[in-house]
Amino acid sequence: MGEVSSFVLPPTPLVIDGITFPAFVTPPDSSKPFFLGGAGVRGLDIGGQFIKFTVIAVYLEESALQILAQKWSSNTADELTGSLEFYRDIINGPFKKFYQIAFLRHLTGEQYTDKVIENSVNHWKVVGISVEKEAEAVDKFKDVFKPETFPPGTSIFFTQCPSGSISIAFSKDDSVPETNNAVIENTALSYTVLETIIGQIPVSPAAKRSLAVRFSEHFKLLSTTISQAKEQMEVPRVSPNHLKLLLN
Fold first, then answer.
1. Nearest CA-CA partner of 68 in 247, 214, 190, 180
2. What is the 8-class DSSP label of residue 141?
3. Which 8-state DSSP code applies to residue 18?
4. How far apart (Å, rounded) are the C-alpha atoms in residues 239 and 208?
5. What is the reported pTM?
6. pLDDT of amino acid 211
7. In the chain, which residue ranges form alpha helices assigned H by DSSP?
8. pLDDT of residue 183
């Protein structure tokens, strides 16, 4: 028998700035499809104009839906958006995360990593993680990206494992590669890259909001289905007087 799906209705794909993010994708070096949690642009206000640089999509293992629903199923999209704890449960949850960085503007590998590391270091300082202790992982991260360049249409893929590793893959388009280019074993870096995207100071508020909206929709459907199932299982109560009438 096949596995029972957690989805009442299958997730839907998203199209953002001409880039299609499928409802399901299979990460490199994996045979298990992940579902699309949410996606949104990353940009900066430059000279009074919002300039888009990338679009970020976050995928998760299917088990994430049931795990998160246990705590958050009664919350609306606005309530989830306003809860840092909800996003920390995504980031720190015991399931794999897979996210795609699709480029809209040209960046070098060094330009990309400089900003990622800057944001990561700022977060580590806030939460009390020793920057010096993570220096080796930071250097490895920079080395992986140093020879790379990312013109529009190219993508970076990250796989975050609960064990504390982060896998990195590069693609010349938006297709998912079959294998990873590198794996870095470092818990702080593994969790912090996604933290900088959807955490307390997110580089993509749009992706963060998208996760809240789409998860709230899944939760609502799941709660409705469970309620209906419980109602169908309940045995109707018959009063003594009604029972007498039925027996006469």
1. 214
2. H
3. T
4. 52
5. 0.89
6. 98
7. 63-72, 77-81, 84-92, 109-127, 135-145, 187-198, 205-233, 240-247
8. 98
pLDDT digits (tens, 9 = 90+) for 77-118: 999 999 999 999 999 999 999 999 999 999 999 999 999 999
Q: What pLDDT score was predicted for residue 10?
A: 86
Placement of tokens 């629903």 in the chain: 69
**96-132 residues labelled b (16+ CB within 10 A) or e (exposed):** bbbbbbbbbeebebeebbebbbebbeebbeeeebeee
3-state secondary structure of 151: coil
Helices (H) and strands (E) in the chain, counts: 8, 11
Q: Residue 16 carries which DSSP code?
A: E
Contact 163, 121 (CB under 8 A): no
Q: How far apart are CA 30 and CA 63, in angstroms?
A: 16
Q: Could you tell me which of 174, 228, 165 has the C-alpha nearest to residue 17?
A: 174
Q: What pLDDT, on the 0 to 100 scale, is given for residue 191?
A: 97
Tell me if 144 sits within 8 A of 116, measured CB to CB: no
**CA triplet 13, 19, 25: central angle to 5 degrees?**
45
Length of the chain: 248
Q: What's the one-letter identity of residue 9?
A: L
Tell me the C-alpha distance between 122 and 186, whole Å: 17
Beta-bridge mates of residue 37: none
Taking 50 as the pLDDT cut, the residues of the chain under it are: 1-2, 243-244, 246-247
